[in-house]
Design brief:
The protein is of the alpha/beta class and 218 residues long. Helices cover 53% and strands 11% of the residues. Helix 2 packs across helix 7, helix 3 runs parallel beside helix 5 and helix 5 packs parallel to helix 6. The N and C termini lie far apart (60 Å).
């Protein structure tokens, strides 16, 4: 009789243990699915709120929009004023490792062009960044920029064309022009005529939001 009770008890214990393990696995799966995904913004001063009150730039506005829409994403802003494509490339591996983002918005290149960097070097940096993002299983979003034609029409055109070329060849999402709808409005620029006032940033967010929203649903 005692042996029978023991075997029954062992059986019940094993069944209970299996149930606990199964519940734990289900809980972990549910937690993984419900945990917020990260959007990493790798940008320059236009994304780092240069000359603006904290919380008024387009990245902060993106955070607010995502929260309002309850889309399950958080934003990590790794933008630095004056950042170049080479600087972004050097910082990217550590950011990918620590943040493990789902989407990486690459808003760089403007400082490369303003400093007259060789476009081949910039292109190589962008290719390496896009490849690193893809290798980490994240989705890259490339943000295209333009520079004034006074830097030379040929150079300006080649610089702007670089973004579309990379997006097509490497099959990545593209924001056609970051400053669409604001670049031609002098009243939206700060005194330096390079950085935008807070009033321009809602439009900048809208320019990014179109391509980004499609990625959020994947």
């Amino acid at each position: 009789m005692f042996a029978k009770i023991s075997r029954t008890s062992v059986g019940l214990f094993k069944s209970l243990l299996s149930s606990i393990l199964l519940l734990g696995m289900l809980f972990n799966v549910q937690a993984a699915h419900s945990a917020p995904k990260t959007i990493l913004v790798l940008g320059d001063s236009l994304s780092a709120e240069y000359g603006l009150t904290r919380g008024s730039g387009w990245v902060a506005l993106l955070e607010k929009r995502l929260a309002e829409k309850k889309m399950g994403f958080t934003v990590f802003n790794a933008s630095i004023s004056g950042e170049t494509s080479s600087g972004g490339l050097s910082r990217l591996p550590e950011l990918l490792n620590k943040q493990k983002p789902h989407i990486v918005i690459i808003e760089l290149g403007g400082n490369d062009a303003l400093r007259g960097f060789d476009l081949k070097a910039s292109e190589a940096n962008f290719r390496a960044m896009i490849a690193a993002v893809k290798a980490s299983k994240a989705q890259p979003l490339l943000v295209a920029m333009k520079i004034p034609p006074n830097y030379g029409k040929t150079y300006s055109d080649q610089f702007f064309g670089l973004y579309g070329k990379l997006a097509k060849e490497m099959k990545v999402a593209l924001v056609p022009f970051f400053l669409e709808g604001v670049a031609e409005k002098a009243e939206l620029f700060q005194a330096d005529r390079i950085h935008l006032k807070a009033e321009a940033h809602p439009q900048m967010l809208d320019n990014v939001w179109g391509p980004l929203e499609k990625m959020l649903k994947k």
